[in-house]
Every structure is written in structure tokens, then in C-alpha cells.
Amino acid sequence: MSRLTKSMCWDLVTVKKDRLNAIGAAIYQKPASNDCYNKRSKNVPPLCEESDDPNAAWNVSLQACMHKVPEDSTERGSLWPAQWPERLEQPPYWLNSQIGVYGKAAQEDFTADYNHWKTVISESYLKGMGIDWSSVRNVMDMKAVYGGFAAALKDLKVWVMNVVPIDAADTLPVIYERGLFGIHHDWCESFNTYPRTYDVLHADHLFSSIQNRCKLVAVIAEVDRILRPEGKLIVRDKAETISAVESMAKSLQWEIRMIYSKDGEGLLCVRKKFWRPTVEEPIKSAIV
Fold first, then answer.
1. Which residues does UniProt call coiled coil (predicted)?
2. How far apart are CA 26 and CA 2, in angstroms?
3. pLDDT at 206 over 80
């Protein structure tokens, strides 16, 4: 580790041992400039090629190379973000020259998204859904975009997993810059978590966006797996998609807490119940 980290230009800050079990712990610091990289006598480990994308974060093979430190003040990673909670509410400095997900300038998109979710949560989710948020701890935003939904919940004692679908814009860097948790995922595959983990799942125009790639019933079955009994699913989507999800929720014996549609858009809130079949029926195809 000492030889490798030295060749990678990391500084050894300190080495100490735990008083209880004498296990050693070392703290290293990554360089903040490319000066050390340029002065190395041997390019080992090598610097990555210019064509290698340091932002690639989904289904990418590991490479034994290091990316240069961004030195342009407009690049992500060249400066530290603002302190918490300011970093949660302010657009990252490196969004200046980019176009946002919704077509406006990225900083304007970011602010509009945050204000939208603050209004929705304060005026609807906290009051009109019948959810006892004091009992909620684990929340998932299944299509997070900038993480505005999670940011708007900052005053509640909840933990939010922000999921960015792989076929959506890569906004995960924004989510991390805000100090939030996040992950890429393909909702046509199972989610890597234990069953009955989440108290609330939130899906904003997710289900309609994946219906052309996989069967919605399989995705709803996955939702049933990771949602705790008596947990809530909140869906905002097209009216026809809301109708399809409502039908599946009823077949799962979920309770419809609220449903609303207007001008082709809809909102649905359902509660998973402890229901189990009372009569066991043999599956003939499984009997040899």
C-alpha cells in the first residue's frame, strides 16, 4: 500500500493504531493538482487516455489508470461544494454552461425543480396522502433527476435513496454534489436490496417511460418485494399508466389511499397491506 499510494501521488497524512485491538489505520490524501503526476519518473499506474470518460458510472469495466485532476475552475471536481445545507439548495458551480433536463439553462432547471418539489411535498405529500411521516425512515425516489424530491424532505428524519434510471439523463453528479445518496439502475432488472426495505417509494413518470422496454407487471412485482407491509407507493404519471398501476395494486390487495387525474396526468397513492391468501391452492405444474 505504501509503495502503490506513493506512486499514485497520494500523501500519507497519518498512521495510528487502535488502542483496543492494535489494528492499524492509515489516512491518505489525494492530490489537488497534476504537478506530482507530471514529475513522476515512471508513469505507473499510468494516466488514463483523454478519451476515457471519468464520469462513466454504469456497466463500465475497471481500468488500472488514473484520471487527471480537473484544473479548470468550471469543471466538476475542481472546487469543493458549499457547506451543508447550502450545497443542498444551491446549483453546483459547474452547471453554468449546460442545458438542463427540462430544456432550460441547467441552473434555472435545478432551481425550478427544487421549488416544484418543495411545493408538492408541503402542499400535498405531507398533508393529503394520509402518510404518518414520523414513522417513515427509508424512502426511495425511483426517478430522481436532480434529487429535488429528497432535498425537499431535508427537515424530516428520513433517509432517501435517489435512483437515476440508466435510460435517463445522467444527473447523478448533481445528486452527489448536493450531499445526497444516489445510484444508477435499470428498472427492467431487479433492484439490489433486501426485501421489505423501504417505507415509501416515489415514482414520478417512471412507469410510462419503461413500458416500451419491459413489462410493467414485473416492475410492480419488484416494487412489492422492496416495499414494507403498510408502506406507501406514490405515483405521478400519465392517466392511462395510473389506471394500469391502480388495477395491479388492487390485484395485489393493496389499499388505494388516493387517486386523481386531470388533463391526461394522474396521481396515485397506495398502501401495501399484510394480506396473504387464506386458501392454499396447489400449483399443479409444480407437482411431479
1. none
2. 10
3. yes
Cβ partners under 8 Å of residue 283, min gap 6: none
Contact assessment for residue 231 and residue 139, using Cβ atoms and an 8 Å cutoff? no
At 21 the pLDDT is: 86
Prediction pTM value:
0.89
Question: Are the beta carbons of 154 and 143 closer than 8 angstroms?
Answer: no
The full DSSP string for 44-107 is -SPBPPTTS-TT--SS----S-BPPPP-STTSTTSSPPPPTTHHHHSPPGGGTT-B-TTSSBHH
Query: For 61, what's the count of Cα atoms within 13 Å in the CB-facing half-sphere?
Result: 2
Question: Rounded mean pLDDT of 217-241?
Answer: 97
What does DSSP assign to residue 33?
S
CB-side neighbour CA atoms (13 Å) of 269: 15
C-alpha 187/C-alpha 37 separation (Å) is 40
Residue 229 dihedral angles phi and psi, to the nearest 5°: -55, 135
Please state, in angstroms and rounded to a whole number, the distance separating the CA atoms of residues 274 and 228: 9
Q: Which domains does the chain have, with CATH numbers?
A: 1-69 (no CATH), 86-272 (3.40.50.150)
User: 202 and 153 in contact (C-beta within 8 Å)?
Assistant: no
Per-residue confidence (pLDDT) for residue 55, from 0 to 100: 87
**Residue 111 parent element (H or E):** helix 106-120
Backbone phi, psi, residue 165, to 5°: -60, 145
- Type of residue numbered 262: K
